[in-house]
Structure formats: structure tokens, C-alpha cells
Amino acid sequence: MRALLLAAGQGLRLLPITATTAKCMVEINGRPLLDYWLELLLNGGIERVLVNTHWLEDQVIDFVKASRWAAHVDLVHEEELLGTGGTVLANRHWFQGQSFIVAHADNLTDFDVCGFVDAHRRRPAGHAVTMLGFRTDTPRSCGILELNHRGTVVAFHEKVENPPGNLANGAVYIFEPEVIDAIASFGRPIVDLSTEIIPRYIGRILCVETRGYYRDIGTPESLRRAIADTAPRRISRTGVA
Q1: Average pLDDT estimate for 36-54
Q2: Model pTM greater than 0.70?
Q3: Is the omega angle on the peptide bond into residue 16 within 30 degrees of 0, that is, cis?
């Protein structure tokens, strides 16, 4: 399986850090966030990773070329940001007509990649998407999921005042190729996954909840928390110590 890491955004919520540092190059205990992701995916059995670039792209390119992951990583530049779905569509041939992972690279996690892929392969009939879920301590700031007894997403509540629980969308997906056709059906290059594509698949999405670590590092405060959380635990190639 191949994976797309969405890493092109400017990271405006992380200003002033991202004024001079690409979002995926923000360091957590001495390592860029992108390094955590490449290690997690490629050590988890993923064949190749595609990273999209835009803001401060030279930082990302230089890091990837010098990294131990270089032979397994492809880079694609977006002159104009295409939205999360638009990036998938623009690179549809790279996925080779197979199931594929899409992940937002502004989160820090150590979820079980092999287990996630296996769950997708065993998903209920008719499901085209598998979504990573996590328990959040700030449900009002997340997309909260409602599941049925099979683990199927039956409702999605995006940043509402009184969410019905704390199981949140972790912005890591496995898509079947048909999802690309759904993106293409909009007839435009810029499409958003969370607001335009995911709602189409309610009732056809399997949620797999991670039991490991997960934190969005989109703000300076959440970045500080991630640094504090992981310093003693050392998220690394061997998992969480």
C-alpha cells in the first residue's frame, strides 16, 4: 500500500513558528514531525510515501533528500494549494489503482499502521473508507464521530458546541479507488476531503480507534503539550517507550 502525507499547508495557527519553518518540519524533541511520520509509515509496511509541498518547500526537499527514507519518498509541489481532496485527485495515477492511505501530517501519533491496514482489508461489505479515531480531551474543537455496533460511522459532528462524545476523526484514512472518482465528480481541481467527501460516505466508513498516542500540533499550545507528552515516552521506531 502507498500513502499520501498532506504537508503543504502554511500552518497559520502555528504562527510565528511557521513564518520561518514549514509546518511538517516543526521539531518535537529534536526531530521534525515529518520524520516521525515517515518512520511510522515505512516501518509499518507502507511501500512508498508521497509528500506534497508548497510553503517553504526547500526545507522539506532538503530534509527528505538527506534522510534515511529518501529512496522511499516522492515529492510533489503545489503552486496553488489544491485542498486535501484536490491533492488526491491530482496524483491519482501515483496510487496505481489500489487502496491507499491519506494522512494529515500536522498530527503526532504512533497508531498501529499494520493493524489499521488489516482492519481495512476486513472491513464490512460496502465500506469504501477506513478512518482512524482517537479519544480527545477537547471534543468541541474536533470532528466527533458516532458509530453503530459494527464500528461504522453513522454521524459526524464538526466542531459543535455540545458534541455527543469524545471519539474524534484522526484525519488518517484508507480510501478505495472509487473515492477518487467521487472527488473527480466535482469537476474542479480544489476539493476538501472533510467537508465535501467524507459526508458522502457516512454509513460506508469503518472507524478504527487507536489505543496509542495522538495529538494535533496545530497550535503553539498543542505543540508544547506534544513536546511534554513525548519527551519521557520517546515516540520512536520501536513505538512508545
Answers
A1: 97
A2: yes
A3: yes
Q: Which three cell numbers stand for residue 120?
A: 481495512
Query: What residues does 31 pair with on adjacent strands?
Result: 28
The terminus-to-terminus CA distance of the chain in angstroms comes to 27
> Which cell is 161 given?
458546541
For the structural domain made of 2-232, what CATH number should be given? Answer: 3.90.550.10
pLDDT score for 238: 41
CB 7 within 8 A of CB 59: no
Sequence spans of domains, the chain:
2-232
DSSP codes of every residue in 144-179: EEEE-TTSBEEEEEES-SS-S-SEEEEEEEEE-THH
Residues 6+ apart with CB under 8 A from 191: 82, 83, 84, 85, 86, 89, 183, 197
Which residue intervals of 33-103 are DSSP H helices? 33-43, 57-66, 83-90
The pLDDT, as a whole number, for residue 63 is 96
Name, in order, each residue with C-beta under 8 angstroms of 214's C-beta and a sequence gap of 6 or more.
107, 108, 109, 111, 134, 170
- Residues 47 and 1: their CA atoms lie apart, in Å, by 6
Looking at the chain, list the stretches that DSSP marks H as alpha helix, in order from N- to C-terminal side.
33-43, 57-66, 83-90, 113-121, 178-184, 220-230
Among all chains, which residue has been given the C-alpha cell 516543526?
26
Burial tier of 71 (Cβ tally within 10 Å: 0-12, 13-18, 19+): exposed
Phi and psi angles of residue 94, each rounded to the nearest 5 degrees, phi first: -65, -30
Q: If you count DSSP H runs as helices and E runs as strands, how many of each does the chain have, helices first?
A: 6, 15
